[in-house]
## 1
Amino acid sequence: MTDLLEPQRPRDAASRAAALADVPLVSPAPTGGIRGILQHRYLLKLLVKREVTARYTGSFLGMLWSYITPLTQFLMYIFIFTLLMGRGGNIEHFAIHVFASIMVVGLFTETVAAGTRSIVRNSALLQKSAMPREMFPFASLLVSIYHLWPEFVILGIALFFTGWAPDLTALVAGVLGYGIIMVFALALAVALSVSQVFLRDTGNIVAVVNNFIRFGVPMMYPYSIVAERFRGHTDLYLANPIADAVLLVQRCFWVPTTSDQKATIAESMPDHLFTRGFVALAGAFVLLVIAQRIFNRFENKMPERL
């Protein structure tokens, strides 16, 4: 009687297999995109912490190098451009012009370079853990932002001694400039991380292109030179969203340090800078959507290539 009341259990392998055959299969793949990244915030935090820690492992000074390196760069720019070349007499506080521009360009190049190799570099972790693969290029962006803060400290000290007096327009310009760079860099990092899986030369191509970016934006030279040399034909130059972002950052940090801000804006800033900036930001978001769709299309083919 007791045996009749107990549920019947599979007694051999065949019956167990028959029972499992009726269980619906559920894909273990995690949710992708921004939603998937937000669902795995703890893993994202661990990835960023691991990348930051790995950079300074075995170093005696550790995080102090994050301050020493930008400080020596800034002092070098002061010596070369102000004392050696005498350019400081023509362009007021040109060292700040260069350093603020290098910060935003460095954020872009570091994010794209690290994001391109992020999936291949973490292939072992990716195969062991179920997580959105977009998390790796996104973590590269956060690591680049983390390493940017010591540079802001050095820049802030320099701005204090040069009498930086920004208005609301300048602050909006800075936020817009960095917004363009972060969205644009993330879009390229997501798309190129897919390319690196199938074409391992992608990382080397990105490294070469990054060398040209530094000279394709008004960083080591003022925009006034571009406007003078290409009179009325600067639209193609300004179609580069990185150039727009650099000019917006200069509008935020460099222009308020000059004695005659109106004259500096008229001579060294293009017309309709904010309009160009918002168009560039919109284009960066469109590119991010396209990059996400490319990523989704090839995501299932990545494991066999890794």
## 2
Amino acid sequence: MIAQEVIDARSAPASAPAQAGMPKKSEIPDDKDMLRAAVELTRDISVAQPRIYWPDMLASAAVGYAALAGAILLDNPWAAALSGVVAAVALYRALLFIHELTHIHKDALPGFRFGWNLLVGIPLLTPSLMYEGVHTLHHARTRYGTAEDPEYLPLALMKPWSLPVFALTAILLPFALLVRSALLVPLGVVLPPLRHLVWARFSALAINPGFRRRPPEGDFARMVFWQELGTSVWAITLLASTFLLGWRPLLVALSVVSLTAFLNQVRTLVAHLWENDGEAMTVTAQYLDSVNVPPPALLTPLWAPVGLRYHALHHLLPSMPYHSLGEAHRRLSKHLGVDTTYAKASYAGLAPLMSRLVGSTMRPR
């Protein structure tokens, strides 16, 4: 149903803002002063710092797995449930380092990609292959917001029921990932048509149902092989463990990861305004279709961790490490001021953004 909504929305003659007398997203010109300032004011903070990345990722994973063990082992249901929530939030932060892996220079953090995959990506059935080579398409100048963008849906132009369906489908993601890695990928070794289908349709963390992934090549293809092998062996081991431990540990773990996936899907709902109707956009238009939720919003680091509270700024500076985005935002805000294009992408929090999105879906078209 959502796939048909995408088709209908992208065939609509105009977006909601255009109907209200504002220019369409695709017609917004670039603010060259803002783009120049974003580059010039942040050169000295553009290097990823291993002393920040490694402890943050390792601590998030350690807390997440310890809390997950509590959720599985504790007898008190309330204590187990609380432990499960802590696990979901901590593992959510650990998982979102996959976003950083797609942008940092390959030589910036030696061993970090391997370490993250070994400790987080493969155990949670989400190796970095599912995002690398995909997310960068979302940042391509001519792809963002179009039918070729794997991470864009015109949600603001769709029906109101699309939003809860979009969020709740994430709950099934861990179960789908388990089937993919334990069954479909191994079967694809002996059934080439299935292998091609799984890669094209089910190997990317994409939300655009029309996206089809191209076959991997070169060094990336070799990395994919080892990551798929490791994830499949782990997935089969998880299923085999039920013969010794029963189904409860695995179901609890999958439920925790389901909550993690739901948190990410909620964040995705407010990462952009989702108001583009399918045409190519300028960098400034892409920025204004994206969202910053800067301080003093207190809960934002929980639902938009690892720098994702500055998602609009990230679209101006995709390679800026997450630990520098707060300082970059402060510099640009001070330099450009409040009555500027830069300030227009900042919002107060999750609730106002959700209210705006829901209101957009209810506008007559």
## 3
Amino acid sequence: MSSIETVASIPLPLRGRGKTASAAPCSGGPALQRITPVSSAGHGIPRWARRLSGPLLLVAAWHLASITGVLPGEVLAGPSTVLSSAAKLIATGELQEAMLVSLRRALTGLAIGGSIGITLAIVAGLFRLGEDLVDAPMQMMRTVPNVALIPLLIIWFGIGEAPKIALIALGTAFPLYLNVYAGIRNVDSTLVEAGRTLGLSRAAMIRHVVLPGALPSALVGLRYSLGIAWLALVFGEQINATAGIGYLMANAREFFQTDVIVVCLVVYAFLGLAVDFTVRTLERIFLAWRPAFSGA
């Protein structure tokens, strides 16, 4: 028996471990089988439903604790009260206006801090002199808590919008710096040698090899920076804010309105989730060339 006949005689499920096969007719020869990875097969319940089940169970437990009196309303308002307060804030337009103000602050601070962090990371990552001049001060400054700088920011910039944006910029610069710098320095050396063999100039090497190789780390840094941006925003909006989600929370705190406080916290969470989803979408677009494990 020839080797081709031997392979053809092996049952299809045994040819590839963990594979499933489906028959497909083929004219002029034996029936062909299409092999489908088990990981691509459905698991019964859609993934979006499984991901949604966790938050729904948490809300259900919260509602049960509220209606049974285990969680008093003066400690934490129940879901129904929170929804009612959110509907009132939406009807008056206060919530939408506060969201726009807070989102503008966060994105402005991220743009400033991100630009500074990425620029310094490129200088330190590409040039040894830049590393000697930039890396040590950045490593020292990143260990200083941003909240501790609030008094200085108020003295320097006053109590307007500038200290809030500066606090966010300081918080977002360091994650981007660290990840972009590490991404540049961790580019595969074989790719660099291949570029030199092909005769790429230094500028072409940076453009076609180094920066694309550092892009995955840069996007990870962007996700970290976005998370820190919302944390810095919470603190920043406590500095004499006259608008924004933090302003609504400060007013609610004065009147012990836990329902409004919860509404503001949920808005913070959903805004952070929305921008994180945006970055994940960018990762799928720009990193489509990179195979990745998606879970078993």
